[in-house]
Every structure is written in C-alpha cells, then in structure tokens.
Description:
Elements: H1 3-6, H2 12-17, E1 24-28, H3 36-51, E2 56-60, H4 75-89, E3 96-100, H5 105-115, H6 120-125, H7 127-136, H8 143-158, E4 163-166, H9 171-188, E5 199-202, H10 230-238, H11 256-269, H12 273-280, H13 284-311, H14 314-343
Tryptophan (TRP) binds at residues 25-29, 59, 61, 64, 152, 155-156, 164, 166, 170.
Amino acid sequence: MSETETGLIANSADVLANPAKYRILTGDRPTGPLHLGHYLGTLKSRVDLQNAGVPTVLVIADYQVITDRQDPGDIKRNVYEILLDYLAVGIDPVKTTIFTHSAVPALNQLLLPFLSLVSLPEMQRNPTVKSELADSGQTVINGLLLTYPVHQAADILFCDGNLVPVGRDQLPHVEQTRLVARRFNDRYAGGKRVLVEPQALLSAAPNVLGVDGKKMSKSRGNAISLSATAEETAKLLKRAVTDVDRNITYEPEKRPEVSSLVLIGALMSGQEPEAFAAAIGDKGGKALKDAVTEAINEHLRPIRERRIELAKDPGALARILADGNARANAMADATLAKVQGALGMVYY
Ligand code: TRP
C-alpha cells in the first residue's frame, strides 16, 4: 500500500476505481430534517458511492443527540425525518444498512475496552468536542460529550468501516478511531489486525451559506430543508441576504452572500456559477432570489414527491429501520465476539 492509502485521508479516485476494497460508515445526528447543506455536502455523494458499489452503513446517531443539549427534542420524529431524507434522495435500504445507535447494544459493550485505550488529555484536546462545548453554552463538559468520539469509533469499527465520508470537523474523530484500532490491535491482539484503521473521505463540500449569510444550520433557522415545500422555500429565499450591487457576479471572497446564492442556483441547475450569475446580470437581488428558488424547487421536486409518498406508509419505514437494526446487530455482535476473544473474555 502506498503512503496515501494508509493515511488519514482516502484517495477518492481509488474509491471509485476499486469500490469493493471499501466499506463506508457514516451518519447524522437526528436533530431535525436534513437540509441543502447536507445534500450538497454529503448525501448526493453517498448515493453515488452506494450506486458505484461501495457497501454502505449509515448510522442515525441518536445517542449523540444528548451529548450537548439538555432537551433532546422529539428524537423519534427526527429519526424518521432523517430516514425519509435518506430514502428520498436515493439511499437504497437493500444495498445500504441504516441503523440507530440505541438499537445496537454491542456498541456500548465495545465502548468500554475502547475507552481503556484513550487518555483523558486526548479526549480533552479534541477540537470538535471543544467547539461543541463552546457552542452549547455550557461551561462544564459532561461525560458523554467528552467520550462520544470513542463511541463514534465503535460505530465505525463494529462494521469494519474503512471509509468515512465526512466534513473536516469530523477528522479528529476519524483520527481517534484510527488510534483506537491501532492500539487495540497492538495491545490486546498481539499485533493481529482485528480492527481496521479507517480513512476519511473528505466531501468536496461546496461552501453554501444559510439565507442569513451564516453557516447553514437547522438551529439557526437559516436552512432550506429537503422536506420544505416549494412555498416555504420561496418564503425563506425572500429573506436571503444580498448586497447593494445590482450586478450579480460570482466572487466568493468579495461577495460571500450573493456568491453562495449563485452557487446554490448553479449546483441545483447543473450550471457553472459564472454562467448562472451572468444570466441574471444587472437584474438585481430579487431576480437572483427568484432564479435560485426556482432552481432549488425544480431540482428537489422529485425528491420531495418521493418523500411525501414514502411518508404515507409508516409501517414500511419502521420495517426498513428494524431490518437495518437487525443487520447492524449481527455485524456488531460478530465484532464484539472478536474483541472479547482477543481480550480473553470468552469463558465457555
Ligand atoms: N458525529 C457525526 C455528526 O455530528 C455523526 C456521526 C455519528 C458519524 N457516528 C458517525 C459520522 C460515524 C461519521 C462516522 O455529524
């Protein structure tokens, strides 16, 4: 294996050339429906990778919801919203295993030996955990917020995930997972490769902003949900921040808000951002917002229609989740057996 193949970040060309070499594990916290930022940043490429033949496991990370907030919200509802988003964009529940943390007890069993491999300062240094603590407005860290990256390592390692498509904020967690795997193999398995060190696959995430010009996020109320109606999308876009220059251009450094709108419009309509901007020319911010609204609504129309159809059959959705959870449990039990075997904890 070359240096890059063994490093933290995977080579995306190799993934497409050798899909069978890889196995994806990634996921989302069920804190609300997924939005355009998720779609452009990761959902679309997950579907492409799935369809290219990379075996895929998706975790709806319910236990991560309670890491940084007092009020978990309506977790059950949010789990089904995310499941609907996955299915509507083209995740195929036959090819791809979709599961929730809370349905897989072996994950928690894996957490204990993994915690023995990680030091307190290592956990305290994790920059993503630090910024989540700061964003939460809490002053002291709780035990789950401190340790969830190790639980996330169990997500990845239980299914032998060797490829983790994520944004940059998740890199410390993938690095942590690699350390856990390496240390486990060295310390408890006599150097045998019981656990596989995963690599991150960085999404070429386009930098799309919310309608207020800040990072798109559900909690800021500035996000265009996949599940929003065409009318809700139009209403949200009307509020979008632009600037005083009526001539629409694509200059991300100089004009971040206008350029983000241009980029969204371009990506949704399959054009280059410069061409999308030029077509609006000096017609101003209102024309830009109208064009972006139309591009989003056109692109998402089939996805939204599918989502509405799928939502009509809650029993079928429950069966999909139950089936995914059963498949995840089988994998997790097998990994736990290997881990306990290496530890000498199999007694009969
Ligand atoms: N921490 C991820 C997020 O907040 C969600 C997640 C949970 C995840 N388990 C994972 C991502 C395993 C990648 C791999 O978005």
